[in-house]
Every structure is written in C-alpha cells, then in structure tokens.
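Possible race condition, two jobs.
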Amino acid sequence: MNLKRLSVVLLSLAALTLMTARADQVYRWVDAQGNVHYSQTPPPDAVTKAKLVDVKPPPPDPSAVEQQRKLVESVNAADAAQQKAADAAQQQAQEKARKQQACEAARKRLQGYMEAHRVITNGNSAKPTYYSGDDLVKFRQQAQEQVTKLCAGS
C-alpha cells in the first residue's frame, strides 16, 4: 500500500477511535448564590463542594465506522490495481528485452553468414562439416527469415 495513503487511513482510524474512546471529566458545583455550574476545569478555590462527574462518550456511530471500513477497502483495492499494473508493465518490459536480445542474436548470425565464404560446423561429432555454395545461400536465407520473424516491429 502506498505509505502516504496508509498513514492517512491509520491517522483517520486513530482519530475516530480517540474521539469515541475519550471520556471527558466534567466538574459540577453550586456557587454561593445556589447556581449550578458545569465545567471541564476544576471549580474556583472558594467552592468546596465540587463533584467530579464522569461523562461517557456516545457509542461510535456505525455509519462512520462503516465509511472508514469502506475507505480502507477502496484504498487497498486501488493499491492492488496499481501493483497489478506495475507487474504487468514489468513483464512487458522483460518480454520486450528478451525479444530484442533474440533479434540481435539473429542479426549477428546473419551478418556472419553474409561475410563468410564457407561455414564450418562441429555439431555433435569431433569431425567438422564444411558448407559452401548452395548450402551457404540456404543458411543465409534461413538466417534472414529468422531476422524477419524475430525483429518484426523492432
């Protein structure tokens, strides 16, 4: 997953979790005139009967949790598609390089046949075989066909 996207998603989840999990402290006190006060800060020192009231946060909004889950799924799907496209592009580049190498090898073989007056092969036996004349023309034609086949579109 893209690191930037992952950090945004994780920060969003953390913020949502902290907002729903945080219980605020609320102080309740009655002043000298009998007025009731609520505050997140402790009451002034003059007030002696202050009571700390725990305020429970509301339960998490199911729609917000579902939206967050869908966001994570959508980011994961986009990253998976991006990775798949990158893999396909890499495979295409490798295939193109392989074809280019085969083309270059065929061109070198053809160049060798074009410059040679006779061809010597050693095959599987210890005794070399000599080719010239019509055989050399045949080798040149075969090599040209390979170049045409392998280098098409290059």
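Job #2 (started ~2 s after job #1):
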Amino acid sequence: MTTEFTIDLSGRSALVTGGGNGVGQQICRAFVRAGATVWVNDISAERAAGVADELNALGPGSARPVKADVTSPAKVLRMRQETGPVDILVNNVGIPTGGFTLQKFVDTQPADWDAMIWLNYGSVLHVSHAYVGDMVTAGWGRVVTIISDAARKGERYQTIYGSAKAAAAGFARSLATEVGKYGVTVNCVALGSILTGPLADAVAADPEFEARQSKPYPVPRLGRPDDPAALIALLASDAASWITGQVIPVDGGYVMAL
C-alpha cells in the first residue's frame, strides 16, 4: 500500500535565520509555497524586508521580516518577543555574507575563533533555546539546522568552521533524544559547496572555476541555493514525523552518508 502525501505547511509558522539571501531565502520561498507563515530573519532589515515583499507576491503562504543578530542572546530574546512561538525553526545562519579566510589552524589566534564559533554554534543554541520550549508545550515542532560537509569530512583550512558545525550536529542529536516524545523532531542538513556569496562571484568571474571545483563531486556541479529547499520543507512537514536526530547531506555525493 502506498501512502500519498504532499508537503503542506498550511497553518504552520516558521522562522528561518539568515533568510535574507542565499540558501535561507530559498528555504523561505519553499515554505511560503507550501502555505506557511514565515518570519524572514536577517541581520539586515533591508534584506529581510526585500525577501518578505517578494515572497508575499507568491503565496499561498506569507512572509514577515524580523531583524536580529542571532549571535546576541539579548537580541534573540527580543526577536522571540516579536515573533511569538513558531512551529518550525531553521537554524540557517552560518558563513558570514563576505565568506571567511581559509587558514591553517596553527596560523590562527584564539581571537579568530570566537566569531566563527558564536555564529555557527552559539546562534543555534540561543535560537533553539528561545523557541523549542514552546514547541514542546504545543506537542508539535520541527527544528532543522544547516551544517556543512566540513563537519562530516573535515576540510583543510576550515578547522574552526568545521568543528563549530560538528558541534551543532551533536547538539541536534542530543536535543532530538529529549524532545521526540513531545512531537518535536530535530535534524541537520549538511551542504556541500553552494553557489552563493563569494563562491558565486568567483564562478561569474571565471566560467571554468565551477568545473575545477566540482571534480570531486559525483554529480559534476556545485550546489545551487535552492537545492536543499525541498528536503527542508519535507523535514518541516507532518510527512517527516519519524525522521529525527539525523544528518542528511545535500552535496552532490561529495561525502556519502552510510
């Protein structure tokens, strides 16, 4: 017997951190198309508002902007006061808009670590802490955190970034064991290289750059910002109620899951 389903998020509310561009923007788009009411979070009020305006023209769901620096616990709490509880949380914030410098660990200094750890791990802790309690009370919730193959494989010159993303994955697994009995699932989606920000700029400047960079990928291209969106919409839906504590890659086969 085959169970038919569609990804229907009608009546659900969602918060997507870093929703003002790139992968976050495409996640917001997928949620609105599935009928959800989406809070588009960004550190830039202009970016958040621009995405919300664009998505409100799509329907059937709707979008609202919310500015907050999710590395600040106080600003996260103010954001929670503005949005109220949500059904779905996507911890998407990660690499800064301008990217980061690839650097040997021994050449870094402790002062270099803090911002990377705070952005890629600390924000996940603080935003999840602000919203998951309401999901537990409601008896339904979805948390999806975007991590990187740098956390699963290990990448040269990305030691702090990869370890922060690995910490976020460990947090998700542990949280999943605590809240599953309350109808709340917690998962991670691990991404390979996505054409956004400086990487997209590099490809635009050199058409051969993508071919060189994608040689290790069984699917011979780099990712597009919309590649993970359908999976994340599925994980946010009722159809994924028995998927929790997992790290699922969307990476063209770069690091295959067992």
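The radius of gyration is 18 Å.
Logs attached separately.
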